[in-house]
Amino acid sequence: MMLKELFGSGKFAVTSEVAPPKGTDISELKEGAEYLRGRVNAINVTDLQSSVMRLGSLAVCRLLKDWGFEPVFQLTCRDRNRLALQSDLISAAVLGIQNVLLLTGDYPTLGDHPDAKPVFDMDSVTLLQIASGLMEGHDMAGNELKGAPKFCLGAVVNPGADPLEPQIIKMEKKIEAGATFFQTQGVFEVGKFESFAKATEYLKVPIMAGIIFLKSAGAARYMNKNVAGVFVPDDMVSEISKAESRVQTTIDIAARIINGLKGMCSGVHIMSLGWEKHVPAVLDRAGL
């Protein structure tokens, strides 16, 4: 099922994500996905998240299809030129993958192979244009395809960016290039997201708010220092640092944020950071 059909129905969408393993053992991957069965509408598969070498997103998406899940194929520009990007998109279509989230990607110096040569032949806007062209039946060079893919194209946005205007301008460009929904960076400040939602209401595009599990005070401080546009308020940092049960407090905070965001977005995307087994508890607490 394409996510755009879900958005069109007016239902509040819920997605989560899994990180492919660093190796061929997929037992933990399958276990993590099973915790999400029947609770989320789709599962995103990260594409070498944080520039760390792992099992490929495309292969994991196919595994999820075989296991009865709806995958969202994340594809970044970091490691592929325009030939490989187009080929992977067509490959995804042939494998039955319809939902695609297109990103520029993190720089390799952030990962476990810092000397890797980055490609960045395209950026996310151009990649959206390419994917839209493939859906129209031609490649980037104008050559006709023998069979065109059908995708629900997604993009990302950071609602906590300061200033916000460049993000909105980029959203406009991405919509023009073919984006049909947006997934945001992690949201911890509901009031700030409300301002973003009001500022982008005219775009008339579904937006899924990103929910990051706040697993420790150290993680909060790391995000505040290193992740642009993401700020964990001091009271949340204090709450998680003083928690008698870190797991329960993580669940409480995530559910509280989701409840605060209802009515401002078309759905939520939960980044559980390996705690997939706690996603159902968050959804229960949030009434989803």
Summarize the structure.
With 288 residues, the chain is α/β, with parallel strands linked by helices.
Characterise this structure.
- With 288 residues, the chain is α/β, with parallel strands linked by helices.
- It has one domain (3-285): TIM Barrel, CATH 3.20.20.220.
- 41% of the residues lie in helices and 15% in strands.
- It is built from eleven helices and eight strands.
- It has helices at 3-8, 27-36, 57-66, 82-94, 124-136, 165-177, 190-200, 217-226, 234-241, 246-261, 279-285; strands at 13-18, 42-45, 71-76, 99-103, 152-157, 181-186, 207-212, 267-271.
- Helix 5 (124-136) runs parallel beside helix 6 (165-177) and helix 9 packs antiparallel against helix 10.
- The two termini are 19 Å apart.
Q: Number of domains in the coordinates? A: 1
Which fold does the CATH topology refer to? TIM Barrel
Main sheet, how many strands, which sense, barrel?
8 strands, parallel, barrel
Q: How far is it from the N-terminal to the C-terminal residue, by CA? A: 19 Å
Question: Can you tell me the CATH architecture?
Answer: Alpha-Beta Barrel
H/E series: HEHEHEHEHEHEHEHHHEH
Radius of gyration: 18 Å
Overall 3D form: globular
The pLDDT mean sits at 96
CATH class: Alpha Beta
